[in-house]
Structure formats: C-alpha cells, structure tokens
Automatic annotation (TrEMBL), chains A, B:
Signal peptide: none
Span within the parent record: 157 to 339 of 405
Protein name in the entry: Stimulator of interferon genes protein
Family per similarity comment: Belongs to the STING family.
Domain STING ligand-binding: 1-183
Entry's localization field: Cytoplasm, Perinuclear region; Cytoplasmic vesicle, Autophagosome membrane; Endoplasmic reticulum membrane; Endoplasmic reticulum-Golgi intermediate compartment membrane
Length: 183, 183
C-alpha cells in the first residue's frame, strides 16, 4: 500500500525533523517581520486535497491567499547531503472582511507522488484507486502524528474535499475555518 | 509494498527534478572550484546499503572520503513551499595511491524511512523484512531509471553489501570501482 509508506516517509523524513523546530523559526520570523494576526499556536498547516491535485503556488489557487515570505532556513546534514535545507513558506490569508491572517502553509508533497504514479501505467495503480490512497495517507498520517510526542500541537491536517472547487475562495475559507478551530 | 512506493517517490519527487540539471550544476561548480579528477560523466552516485544503515556524514564512514563543497543550490517551487532548495554534496575520494577523485555522492534518502519503519512496531514490518525491502527498492528504482529519458547517464546506483564492513576503506573502494566502470 503506497499511501501507507508515503505517510511514514513524510513523518520520518520531514515532520519529525521540522515540527519540533517550528516554534523557534516562527519566533525568529516575527522578530524580523510584521505579523498581524498569526494563526495562534504556531502550527504547520498541511493541505491534503482528496483529488491529489496539488499546485506549486498557493497564491495562484485563491486570490485571497498571498505569499508573504519564507521562514528562516533550517540546515540539517542528511544521508550525505551536507546542510540540506528545510524551509516553509508563510502566507497571508484574507477573510471575508479583508483582514489578513498569517500562517505557515503547504500541501502534503507526497500527494504529488500519488498523483504521478496514478498517471504512469507501470507504477501499479490508476485514478480510481487514487482517492482511496489519499484517504489512507490522511488516516495513517493522522494516526502516526497523534502518537508522536515531538509533533504535538505543531501541525494541522486539512483534508480538502474538491466538490466545492467552483467557489474561487474555497481554499482560503477552508484554511480560515480550520485556523479558528485551533484557538 | 513500501519499497515500491518509496522508489517511485524518490524518482518522481527528486531524481526526475534534479538529474536533468546536474550537468549544469557541475559545470558551474567546476568554473569556481579546482576539480582535479572529476568522475567523468557528471553522474549522481547513489549509495544503497543492503542493511539500510545510513550515516549523515560520508567523511565519517571512511577516512579516504573528504567533503569538498556543495553544488550550487537549485530552488524550485514545490507544493506551496516557495523556492524549496535541492542541493548535492561533492566529495573527494582518495584511491590507494592517495590521488583524489571528485564525485557527487549521497545515500538513497528513502532508506532512512525503511530503517526507521523497521524499528517502529506500528509501521508494519520488522528487521527481517528490511533487507528484502532494500532489494525491492533497488530493483524498482533501477527499472524506473532505465526507462527514463530525462535521467539517462546522469546517475549510478551502488548496491553495498555490508559483509565487507570490517575493511575501513570498504566504502571508498566500492565508489572508486564504480567510478572506473563508467569510463
Ligand atoms: N537527498 C535528497 N535531497 C532532497 O533535497 C530531497 N527531496 C526529496 N527527497 C527524497 O525524494 C523522495 C520524494 O520527495 P518528496 O518531496 O515527494 O517527499 C518528501 C516531502 O514530502 C517531505 N520533505 C522532505 N524534505 C522536505 C523539504 N525540504 N520541504 C518540504 N517537504 C520535504 O518528506 C518526504 C520524504 O523526504 P525524504 O525522506 O528526504 O526523501 C525524499 C523522498 O524519498 C530528497 N532526497
């Protein structure tokens, strides 16, 4: 089950490394930037769209989402790559009143692998199975993170149902709804 | 099968992005560094130890391997992370005569995931299966790369059998043996 391994890879190779450092990175960022309404609780917001259709620039998905700046780089020696760089992007998300909320936002990158694999016949699964794999990825990841002491309160997984994609502000609304929940 | 998905992920999310740019990165590096004996053919050498036991600093594995410098950073927008950094480390590997050979070297990062998963009871497989998974990873990756036009002649996979680990220069010798093969 591909999604099971990708969820573990996402945790072991990334979340377990970066989430414990997130609070300090955000503190350093706020010291050098004007952050008006930081999504309280300093979490990494991880977007998981059911259709695995991921864009590389969130600001192009919804005009109420603006790229602000990147958090400071984290350099970690990994598997022979000296000083491999881990960083996150900070976005400003506007609500219905036009007020900006800062948050650390990204898609779950392994979904790109699920999407591409479903397009390659030799990879072993097709589009019908892909949705199931995304759900399995989400549940496995949720389970792993709930049992992880290092990652507690440092993340928020948002499963995005693509039925509402007709609304041009579907994504910003989903993010803000989830930001409120954690306060 | 975890290894199958990890091999596809390694190709889709990494090798397919970085290998086509490798030649240019190396050319840029040579313009600013003294490279005496570059492993001809500008390939990324990917180490795959059967026991999945990966160190983060190659120079600590074998005293004939010295870290030289990093290739220039590649910045690519990925899944909401603006300017995600992809880079590789260049090492100098000394042969029996003390001559230095430059090469771009790293372990296959997904093996870290295989190793950690085999240590976590909730992940689904243990140490006995791990060796099988590493072999499956190697064969799947080999197969994918052989059919990839973008990656032709840009990589070299080295499967490392850990039986010779008693030799303190086992790793440098394996690398040099493989460097010669490609010339
Ligand atoms: N050597 C090396 N250098 C890299 O820059 C790199 N980037 C990815 N990979 C490996 O390729 C494969 C595909 O990557 P993907 O991004 O889809 O998944 C990644 C991604 O979802 C997340 N992740 C890792 N590093 C970052 C990062 N810097 N920013 C965001 N996400 C990251 O965690 C997963 C597992 O990472 P690794 O376990 O390091 O190995 C990956 C993986 O096996 C790399 N390998």
């Amino acid at each position: 089950n591909v999604a099971h391994g990708l969820a573990w890879s996402f945790y072991i190779g990334y979340l377990r490394l970066v989430l414990p450092r997130l609070k300090d990175s955000i503190a350093e960022f706020c010291a050098t930037h004007r952050a008006r309404r930081w999504g309280r609780g300093s979490r990494l917001i991880i977007l998981i769209p059911l259709n695995a259709n991921i864009s590389h620039k969130l600001n192009e998905e919804d005009d109420r989402i603006h790229f602000y700046d990147n958090l400071p780089n984290n350099e970690i020696d990994r598997a022979g790559v000296q000083g491999r760089v881990y960083k996150h992007s900070v976005y400003r998300v506007l609500d219905e009143l036009g007020q900006a909320h800062e948050c650390v936002l990204e898609y779950a990158t392994p979904l790109l692998t699920l999407y591409s694999m479903s397009q390659e016949s030799s990879a072993g699964f097709g589009e019908p199975e892909r949705r199931q794999q995304v759900l399995l990825f989400f549940r496995t990841l949720q389970d792993i993170l709930e049992h992880s002491l290092d990652c507690r309160n440092r993340y928020k997984l948002i499963l995005l149902n693509d039925e509402h994609e007709a609304d041009p502000h579907f994504l910003s609304k989903a993010i803000l709804r989830n930001l409120e929940q954690q306060e």
